[in-house]
Structure formats: C-alpha cells, structure tokens
C-alpha cells in the first residue's frame, strides 16, 4: 500500500533529499522545511520507493499538504 507523506507544518521547502525512483528506509529524512527560521526534517515512516514528488525546493506549503508518495 502506498504511503502518502504529508507536511507537518506550514513553511517553505528548504531541501528535498530524494527524487522519484529512490529507495528509502524507515527513518530516512526525505525533505526539510524552513519554519520560522528553524529546519524541520520530515522522515519516512516506512521503507519503499519514491513514486511521486508533489513538492520542490522553495515551494511554500501548508500543514497537511501532500509532499510525496512511497510505495
């Protein structure tokens, strides 16, 4: 079953550390948001392959926005 990775805070995408097709392990950092001058890492909850990115560096995002999908 595909995992949908959602943003956990509103902010700006500072760094995307994966690309479509990458394989990740549970706990790997996928991307980092800048939230009020603080870096907030978002990690994979499960292992799998990145199938779709919905964010890019410098995007402004809201809480609960779909960032990427892992299968």
Question: Which features would summarize this protein structure in a list?
Answer:
OB fold (Dihydrolipoamide Acetyltransferase, E2P), mainly beta, 71 residues, 4-stranded antiparallel β-sheet, 54% strand
The number of helical segments is 0
| Proportion in helices | under 10%
Query: How many beta strands in the DSSP annotation?
Result: 8
Quaternary organisation? single chain
Q: Helices and strands: which structural class?
A: mainly beta
Question: What's the CATH H-level superfamily name?
Answer: RNA polymerase II/Efflux pump adaptor protein, barrel-sandwich hybrid domain
Proportion of residues in β-strands: over 45%
What is the CATH-assigned architecture?
A: Beta Barrel
**Count of individual domains:** 1
> What is the H/E string?
EEEEEEEE
Specify the overall morphology: globular
Task: Report the uncertain regions.
Answer: none
Strand line-up of the largest beta sheet: 1-8-6-3
Q: From the alpha-carbon coordinates, what is the Rg to the nearest angstrom?
A: 11 Å
Question: How does this structure look, described?
Answer:
With 71 residues, the protein is mainly beta. It contains no helices and eight strands. Helices cover 0% and strands 54% of the residues. It has a four-stranded antiparallel beta sheet with strand order 1-8-6-3, with no helix packed on it. Strands 5-4-2-7 form a four-stranded antiparallel beta sheet, with no helix packed on it.
């Amino acid at each position: 079953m595909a995992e949908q990775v959602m943003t956990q805070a509103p902010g700006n995408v500072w760094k995307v550390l994966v690309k479509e097709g990458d394989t990740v392990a549970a706990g790997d950092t996928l991307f980092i948001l800048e939230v009020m001058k603080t870096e907030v890492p978002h990690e994979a909850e499960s292992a799998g392959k990145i199938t779709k990115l919905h964010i890019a560096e410098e995007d402004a995002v809201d809480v609960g926005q779909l960032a990427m999908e892992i299968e």
